[in-house]
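> example.struct
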């Protein structure tokens, strides 16, 4: 059992709070991703789980055991910095077996474990080859083999694909996910790349300035962002924000934005007159001649089956993801409307989502398919994906 339970975890460096009262649980066998911009406290959190950094306060339980003060070596976890770094002077067998040799495991046992691991990764025919002669994908598999051969209780990975080029990153994301589905080892993975996170995670914690802004399955975070920070950080292009002034009553299912009536998910809380923000994902914006909300087409980005059309409005630029055959000519005036049931409402002062039928889990139209997280759309590679999670046909059991 390798559940990781983090409670009220806090870390300061002098006066600086790097991690502020973090709480989350990674279930046994889950692939958990900590996602956020540089400096938000991801690595510090991971290092505390690994035992490389002491918490200022709070608890970390690994497989039910309280561990903050255990030495790193006493924890049955594998900490992976860069998956692709191999020892060039060793062959495949010695590269994979190296961590076991460091543990002084008897040679016969190392041999069995290495061969088992290589069969599992379908590289057993390469065991006696020098790694320098391997093709890229096989090198990655050797690197994975070296990480999994120890059979640790949990993997902790800190931006392991950070320096790979797009093509290899793409390949490794698929391999890592596939491997995870086969071995189901509890994994904590740190990245600032939302596409990696969305493609691999069972659960994501989005962090900003030491605080977990939202914790949940990728699709939930994409569809029901808890804060404007999350809505902006996840999605490419990110969510559009339209400021307006207004009040809300429970049950109210429309707001007035610059003279236009916009249908929204029914409010579940009241708001006195305040600065509010309407949040619309680009794929929920469409052209509508009848709409009073108007703007001028600023430019288009052609993506094959879709295009991103940027429209300048009184609320700033709004990006719409539209079918590629929709006519959008720079300089022309267009009306815009939204898929009301998919919109978010935020309180501008706090940046927090206002409770609505959407946030309360009146699920958006179901996505077909099974258990995996939503994938990048249109078969795009991770490097150049036009968006994340915007494919209504993408899988996701948690929607
Ligand atoms: P990155 O992706 O850039 O590593 P991160 O989200 O992993 O970012 P952390 O490395 O956890 O961020 O750092 C969080 C904050 O704590 C940063 O502002 C960093 O400068 C600070 N910090 C981290 N380690 C130390 C340290 N040993 N002493 C002082 N400050 C530190």
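> example.seq
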């Amino acid at each position: 059992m390798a559940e990781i339970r983090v409670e009220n975890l806090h870390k300061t460096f002098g006066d600086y709070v790097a991690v502020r009262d973090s709480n989350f649980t990674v279930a046994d066998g889950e692939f958990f991703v900590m996602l956020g911009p540089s400096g938000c406290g991801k690595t510090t959190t991971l290092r505390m789980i690994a035992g490389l950094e002491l918490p200022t306060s709070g608890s970390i339980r690994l497989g039910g055991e309280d561990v903050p003060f255990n030495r790193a070596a006493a924890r049955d976890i594998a900490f992976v910095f860069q998956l692709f770094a191999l020892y060039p002077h060793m062959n495949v067998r010695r590269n994979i077996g190296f961590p076991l040799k460091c543990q002084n495991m008897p040679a016969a046992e190392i041999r069995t474990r290495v061969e088992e691991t290589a069969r599992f990764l379908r590289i057993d025919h390469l065991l006696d080859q020098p790694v320098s002669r391997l093709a890229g994908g096989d090198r990655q598999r050797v690197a994975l083999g070296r990480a999994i051969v120890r059979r640790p209780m949990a993997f902790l990975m800190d931006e392991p694909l950070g320096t790979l080029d797009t093509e290899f990153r793409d390949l490794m994301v698929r391999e890592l996910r596939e491997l995870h589905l086969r071995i189901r080892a509890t994994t904590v993975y740190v990245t600032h790349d939302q596409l990696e996170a969305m493609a691999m995670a069972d659960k994501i914690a989005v962090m900003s300035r030491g605080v977990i802004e939202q914790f949940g399955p990728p699709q939930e975070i994409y569809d029901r962002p808890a804060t404007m920070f999350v809505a902006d950080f996840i999605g490419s292009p990110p969510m559009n924000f339209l400021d307006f002034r207004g009040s809300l009553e429970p049950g109210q299912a429309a707001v007035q934005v610059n003279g236009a009536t916009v249908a929204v998910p029914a409010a579940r809380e009241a708001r006195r007159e305040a600065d509010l923000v309407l949040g619309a994902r680009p794929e929920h914006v469409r052209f509508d001649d009848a709409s009073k909300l108007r703007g001028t087409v600023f430019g288009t980005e052609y993506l094959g089956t879709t295009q991103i059309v940027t429209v300048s409005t009184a609320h700033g630029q709004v990006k719409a993801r539209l079918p590629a055959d929709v006519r959008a000519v720079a300089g022309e005036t267009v009306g815009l409307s939204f898929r009301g049931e998919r919109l978010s409402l935020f309180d501008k002062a706090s940046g927090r989502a206002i409770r609505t039928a959407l946030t309360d889990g009146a699920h958006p139209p179901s996505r077909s398919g099974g258990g995996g997280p939503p994938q990048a759309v249109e078969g795009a590679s991770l490097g150049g994906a036009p968006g994340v999670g915007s494919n209504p046909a993408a899988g996701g059991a948690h929607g």
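> remarks
The chain has eight helices and 20 strands.
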